[in-house]
Specification:
Helices cover 54% and strands 9% of the residues. The chain is built from 16 helices and 7 strands.
Length: 365
């Protein structure tokens, strides 16, 4: 018996459960909700199920163990691979600064793939709107930093004489975004929740006024907004000021590029780069070489120059190979290797495997 969640209609948040007879290849039943209790009840009403194939150690594992205690639990290989690739995406999102490739390395490749720019965080939809963890906050800051670098690159290329359509062709950034950025004097801020008193963002206008008056020392700015009622930390203030400092440095570089010839040795010309999303990079890292498209091959060769990416690719491909035809002993060696590399996302993935060890080993068998 295969079991998974089932969406009753597109865009509908509530989920039911679909049960599939994996020997006959037909749907056996649909349950109105996604719960351990309903799956448990169904299994007790249908004795004789020998194998339960399902996702990780969640509600279906709980319902399967209680409803059919003699059945073998199997972590289905689709979800195992999906969870591994999601772990790789999370790690790549944490290392966004490595995902900016020289544009010439991606020329004449799949144009549809090149259009992908905006990257959504790898966070389950039910978690959106909650407070970010320190790691998620760091990823958000890296996204902001990368956006400012792309903004600076667009302005720099324009200062060197490139027109908007040439910048689009060189960088893969959409025409609408390039046109918008060329009209702006500084990188636009991210969308954020409404600030509250006590948050640095609440005093943004006052801080900006002080900043433009030349008060750009963090400690002095802290003194000024303390007078206005700020009770937060210096760290929070420094986080708000960080993009302003980067924008100032970017503007200075753009100004220098505009007044200096492109071949000036003291100020090299801005080079065009293309952003590879964590999703696209993870998909490329998880494919064997013969199955890679031309674009994916170039992405893999570029990313493998960084040791962590070569390690991630090796771990993903070897894990998939074990699932296709390996042994439990090979899986155990893989788990030890994945734990030893010291990559946080892989450590979390292994932790989930160990929590569902018997079912994962059954997947290999």
């Amino acid at each position: 018996m295969g079991v998974d969640e089932w969406a009753w209609r597109k865009g509908y948040s509530g989920c039911g459960t679909i049960l599939v007879d994996l020997e006959q290849g037909v749907v056996a039943d649909l349950l109105p909700d996604r719960s351990a209790a309903s799956f448990d009840k169904w299994l007790q009403e249908h004795p004789g199920v020998r194998i339960v194939s399902r996702d990780g150690d969640g509600v279906y594992a709980e319902g399967g163990y209680s409803g059919a205690p003699r059945a073998r639990q199997v972590a289905d290989r689709f979800h195992l691979v999906q969870n591994l690739i999601r772990a790789v995406q999370e790690e790549l999102a944490h290392q966004r600064h490595h995902l900016l490739m020289p544009a010439q390395e991606l020329l004449h490749t799949d144009a549809a793939a090149e259009a992908t720019e905006a990257v959504r965080e790898i966070v389950p939809s039910q978690q959106r709107g909650q407070l970010a963890s320190p790691r998620q906050e760091e990823i958000r800051q890296q996204r902001r930093q990368q956006k400012m670098e792309l903004f600076g690159m667009v302005k720099g290329l324009h200062a060197q004489g490139m027109r908007a359509f040439e910048i689009v062709n060189a960088t893969g950034i959409s025409r609408g975004r390039v046109d918008k950025w060329l009209r702006l004097g500084q990188c636009p801020p991210q969308n954020k929740m409404a600030p509250r008193p006590g948050m640095p963002e609440y005093f943004r206008e006052e801080l900006r006024r002080f900043w433009e008056q030349g008060i750009q020392n963090g400690k002095k700015l802290l003194i000024e907004i303390r007078k206005l009622g700020y009770i937060g930390s210096y760290t929070g203030l420094a986080r708000l000021l960080s993009p302003w400092r980067e924008e100032k440095r970017t503007a200075e570089r753009v100004t220098l590029a505009a007044v200096s010839p492109p071949d000036a040795q003291s100020h090299p010309a801005v080079s065009a780069k293309r952003h590879v999303s964590p999703q696209e990079a993870a998909a490329a890292l998880s494919k064997p070489k013969p199955l890679l498209s031309e674009r994916q091959s170039k992405i893999v060769e570029f990313l493998k120059r960084t040791p962590d990416f070569a390690t991630l690719r090796h771990l993903v491909l070897s894990f998939r190979s074990i699932l296709r035809g390996g042994k439990v002993s090979s899986l155990k060696r893989w788990i030890k290797e994945a734990e030893a590399v010291g990559i946080e996302a892989m450590t979390r993935f292994v932790r989930h495997l160990n929590k569902d060890q018997a079912a994962v080993e059954n997947a290999v068998e």
